[in-house]
Every structure is written in structure tokens, then in C-alpha cells.
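note to self: dont lose this again. the chain is below, predicted strucutre after it. 148 aa total, dont forget to put it in the shared folder this time
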Amino acid sequence: MHHDYEILLMLDPELPEERQDEIIARVRELIENAGGTWVGHDPWGRRKLAYEIDKKTDGIYHLLQFDAEPETLDELSRILKITDGVMRHLPTRRIKGGHGPGRPGPEPVETVSREPEYAGANIRSQDRSQEEQEEQDRSQEEQEEEEE
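---
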């Protein structure tokens, strides 16, 4: 009985694109030779890792979707574990009618130049205190003129 599966592959970021394509083609070949059905391949691209793996801070992700027998998935996992260039892989069952997790959103971009929201309030209070200071200076000048 065929089940719906997907594998999230994390490949070495230093791997040439030809080798990445080779690994994915081999996975597809294994699935189809075992009587499974290739559903799709969604390259997610290079992503920053939460922690270093083998002294690498990035990984190249590929989401592979297919239908296969559980034995095929076991064999595929065994082969991916010993394949050079595969840093990690995560096989999971796809939910029927679901589209899977799909492509993740873009990585958050850190903006350093953005002022905190309270900065505007500080500027306004500085403007106010400057106006108050000018007002005090004017009234002091007026008092000095009256004394003369």
C-alpha cells in the first residue's frame, strides 16, 4: 500500500549544483524503480542554520514529495544517510489533501537603521525643551532691559 511522503533534504552548501541534481535524480530513480510515484521537487535554496553542523552555518534545502511503500522509504533513508553531501534528511508522511508545508517565507532581514518608535517622542520632547529654553532666554533678556 502506497503512502504519501515528503523528505526535507539539507545538502552541503559547498556542493556543486550538478551534484545536488545528481542526488535528487538518484532519489527519484529509487522511488520510481520501486513502483512509487514522484509528486514533486521544491528547491528552497540556501538557508541559515540554527546551529553549526560540521562547521557549516548554511544548508541548501530541497523538499521532495512522492508516494511509495514504507519499505522504499526505509531504503531511501538508509541510502541518504551514507550519501556524501547530504547533511540531514527528514522523511514525514504527507496529510491527504494537504499541500505540505510549502515554501518557507523569506528569512527576516535585520534593519539596523530603523529608529525605535519611542525615538520620535524623545525628539519631540527635545524640541519642546529647546523651545522652553528659548522662551526663558527671551524673558530674561526682557527683564534685563527693564532693569536698565
